[in-house]
Design brief:
Largest sheet of chain B: 6 strands, mixed
Shape of chain A: globular
Oligomer: heterodimer
Strand content of chain B: 25-35%
Largest interface: A-B, 16 and 24 residues
CATH superfamily of the largest domain in chain A: MetI-like
CATH topology of the largest domain in chain A: MetI-like fold
Helix content of chain A: over 70%
Distance between the termini of chain A: 26 Å
CATH class of the largest domain in chain B: Alpha Beta
Strand order of the largest sheet of chain B: 6-7-8-3-9-10
């Protein structure tokens, strides 16, 4: 697609580029810092390109001083468990609310709305006390359980399922499927765009979450990546910002790569579920 | 032999009665078309029969089994939906195989991976594949089996939907306006195919449509539903020639039937212009009645002749025939006459004419819409024509 560069277009492109630059600046600065050695970071001059490339040294420090594999593995386990549980709970729930008639449907809708309105910070303290009483602090359960029911997921799937034709479900019933069979064989295979979009939202949110792991985890072996960074800064790196930035880079990389790969799906999913403004 | 019957099916939504006691019986291998204007409850009735919805009261029998308590799957009823409702993520072949797989394979055998390891599963799957293939060949869609619904035309999707419904030998076949998403040419062609298919399968079929020409041309018997009541269930010819209710007469027939208001005196005599009809007298004495006559039984006469004086409003030329719209001088109603193009030659709008009605084809309806027996009082037509 070729378009001539009209003044309006130039203006728009400039504005968008400036915006993009503003959002990318911290990340670019992080990439740059990860390659500088200690003296250069604290020097008065500011340059984006390191004078002496210290990437190898910084990455070696980041990888050896804390158990980076452990952090990443924890991140994958926690995010994976959360995502699977959320989908397993939210899909049947949204199906029931979208396509089945039952007395409590309106009440459930109200609960979902309420759930959307209450932030995690409001329930954090009672949840912490409960996990403490159950002696479940410092465990995957404490990290995963509070997020297993995602009202956002229910809401997103609900919108998507409502658009599915009733006849499809009727046909499935006549063909002899149970309600669970309908969810597994008809709904889910046709809901991949919604599931993908939700997966991205969920994984991004929980991979980057610092608040909740900070509350329930003190043991390093259960630390998720952002929490690990915190430990790393406090205990290991001290003022070694080069190594810290290298570690941050390692931790953010999986999400960046995943987003770049699934970019098209991501946009599709958002437009399909009517979330766009 | 009655193989399928509905007795006094009632259903209301939020206080609105949608079905007001519908009863119907189908013989073995019969094709019944359920026709009516939109909102008359025909689709609701179909869904109740299918088990997708529950009636408030009433009985559904297939053979000698009472079905209304069974789930949709246990009734062994197949249905073709207006939107076809093919599974978009499965190919045509897989779509057709679904009802067979759900019936023949156990839950364990249907599981991916694990299922293929179970004994007997491969045998049954091969069996299903053979049936799907045979069905596809008989519907001439065997070249489409690997395509997904999104890659098929409307006509092809419709055939796949038919195949999916027929493949498991249902005891009753339901169709909910299966042709309404096809273009006009294809629709006429598909009519013949469905009738043909029904002949071969010999399964009693309930076919819902709002298109009266579909109903009249395809069905063994037509059931006319209006406002939640099944008003008449009869052969297409009888529905057209001998409607039992004024609503049936009004709904069936293109162009519509002529309906003229009239009065019946204490002796049961009804007078329309120079035309007289005898009907059994009412107990209450005088009564309002309606006279019905189909446009093809209205004859054009020159001015001053015929039973009714009228004025031509406009003409509609349809090729093999002409529809003449004529306003009656006495009551201001517009009457339609369907005549051969030759008869209408030279007519212009505004021209005064006379109209006669074929006395053998007059229908009389009571105020509540019920059909009344009526006989023309002899030779009235001739006499008045000259007097």
């Amino acid at each position: 697609m070729t378009q001539s560069l009209t003044p309006g277009r130039v203006f728009r492109l400039t504005l968008l580029s400036l915006g993009a630059l503003m959002f990318l600046a911290p990340y670019i600065f992080m990439v740059s810092t990860a390659g500088k050695d200690q003296s250069e970071i604290f020097s008065a001059s500011l340059s984006l390109i390191p004078q002496h490339f210290a990437y190898v040294a910084n990455f070696t420090k980041a990888l050896t001083r804390v158990s980076m594999q452990n952090l990443l593995l924890n991140g994958v386990i926690v995010c994976g468990l959360i995502l699977v549980l959320q989908v397993v709970v939210a899909v049947p729930c949204a199906y029931a609310m979208a396509k089945l008639k039952f007395g409590a449907a309106r009440f459930m809708m109200a609960l979902v709305m309420l759930g959307l309105l209450v932030p995690i910070h409001a329930t954090a303290l009672p949840l912490y006390v409960a996990f403490d009483k159950l002696s479940l602090l410092n465990s995957y359960t404490a990290l995963v359980a509070p997020f297993s029911i995602s009202v956002f997921g229910i809401f997103l799937f609900l919108q998507f399922f409502r658009a599915m034709p009733d006849d499809l479900i009727h046909a499935a019933r006549l063909d002899g499927m149970s309600e669970a069979g309908i969810v597994a064989r008809v709904i889910v295979p046709n809901a991949w765009p919604a599931v993908t979009a939700f997966a991205i939202f969920s994984v991004v949110a929980h991979w980057n979450d610092l608040f909740w792991p900070l509350i329930v985890v003190t043991n390093q072996s259960y630390a998720t990546p952002p929490l690990g960074l915190l430990f790393f800064r406090a205990a290991e790196a001290g003022d070694d910002y080069g190594a810290l930035m290298a570690a941050t880079l390692i931790i953010t990389l999986p999400l960046v790569v995943a987003f770049l790969l699934a970019q098209k799906r991501f946009v599709e999913g958002i437009t399909m579920t009517g979330l766009k403004g | 032999m009655t193989v399928f019957s509905l007795r006094d099916i009632r259903k209301s939504f939020a206080g609105n009665a949608i079905l007001k006691g519908v009863s119907l019986e189908a013989e073995a291998g019969e094709f019944i078309a359920l026709v009516g204007p939109s909102g008359c409850g025909k689709s609701t009735l179909l869904r109740i029969v299918a088990g997708l919805d529950h009636a408030d009261s009433g009985e559904i029998r297939i053979g000698d089994r009472e079905m209304s308590k069974l789930t949709a799957a246990d009734r062994n009823i197949a249905m073709v939906f207006q939107s076809y409702a093919l599974y978009p993520h499965l190919t045509a072949g897989q779509n057709i195989a679904v009802p067979l797989a759900m019936r023949k394979l156990t839950g364990m055998q249907r599981l991916p991976l694990i299922g293929t390891l179970l004994p007997g599963q491969r045998q049954i799957c091969a069996d299903i594949q053979r049936q799907v293939q045979a069905m596809a060949v008989s519907l001439k869609i065997d070249h489409l089996l690997d395509r997904k619904p999104g890659q098929m035309s409307g006509g092809q999707r419709q055939r796949v939907a038919l195949a999916r419904a027929m493949v498991r030998n249902p005891s009753v076949f339901l169709m909910d306006e299966p042709l309404s998403n096809l273009d006009a040419n294809l629709r006429v062609h598909a009519r013949g195919e469905i009738v043909d298919l029904h002949r071969r399968a010999g399964v009693p079929t309930l076919y819902v449509t709002h298109d009266q020409s579909e109903a009249l041309s395809m069905a063994d018997r037509v059931a006319v539903m209006i406002g939640g009541n099944l008003l008449q269930l009869a052969a297409p010819q009888a529905i057209y020639d001998d409607p039992s209710h004024i609503e049936v007469a009004r709904f069936i027939g293109q162009p519509r039937i002529n309906l003229l208001p009239g009065k019946k005196d204490v002796h049961g005599i009804v007078q329309f212009g120079a035309l007289r009809l005898a009907s059994p007298p009412d107990a209450q004495g005088e009564a309002n009645v309606t006279l019905g006559v189909r446009p093809e039984f209205v004859r054009l006469r020159t001015e001053g002749q015929g039973a009714l004086a009228a004025r031509v409003e406009r003409l509609e030329f349809l090729g093999s025939e002409v529809i003449v719209f004529a306003k009656l001088a006495a009551i201001g109603e517009t009457m339609l006459a369907k005549v051969a193009p030759g008869e209408a030659r030279g007519l212009v709008a505004g021209q005064p004419i006379g109209l006669d009605m074929d006395p053998a084809h007059l229908m009389l309806f009571a105020q509540d819409g019920q059909r009344l027996p009526a006989t023309p009082v002899s030779a009235v037509l001739r006499e008045t024509a000259h007097g």
